[in-house]
Specification:
Helix content: over 70%
Number of helices: 6
Shape: globular
Structural class: mainly alpha
Number of strands: 2
Largest sheet: 2 strands, antiparallel
Strand order of the largest sheet: 1-2
Order of helices and strands: EEHHHHHH
Strand content: under 5%
């Protein structure tokens, strides 16, 4: 089958190898948010390139798992909660996105001394928008 990278089966095989390598780095000690970030990003990229909706969904769900592990190792960081929030929205899971939206806002507040790390106005609007009652 033709996909975004040409032959989808070859693209899937390559993406699977990349995900396997990234997953292996998550078991190294000490555990690193960067390793889980690499795994999540690899899976999300594979999802982007996939022509199979079920495969895309599985990879995005696995990416969320990896980023959740990264967020646990980086409790004040903004990057992983924001990625999870956006991916939950992409999957149509607004209730889960709301939970992460609250965490995104808390993480953003913890960055108040470093304005360059904070949410952009567009991101803040999107995050706050999901928390408003319908």
């Amino acid at each position: 089958a033709q996909g975004k990278l040409g032959h989808q089966d070859r693209a899937d095989a390559l993406a699977q190898r990349a995900a396997d390598v990234a997953k292996a780095t998550t078991s190294w000690e000490p555990r690193s948010p960067s390793a889980f970030s690499l795994l999540g990003t690899t899976l999300a990229t594979w999802a982007e390139l996939s022509t199979d909706p079920a495969q895309r969904r599985r990879n995005l769900e696995a990416a969320i798992e990896a980023w959740t592990a990264a967020a646990a190792l980086d409790p004040f960081g903004l990057t992983f909660p924001l990625r999870i929030f956006k991916t939950e929205l992409d999957l149509g899971r607004r209730d889960r996105a709301r939970v992460w939206a609250e965490r995104v806002l808390r993480a953003d507040e913890s960055q108040r001394l470093d304005p360059l790390k904070r949410l952009t106005s567009k991101e803040r609007e999107e995050v706050e928008g999901i928390l408003k009652p319908p």
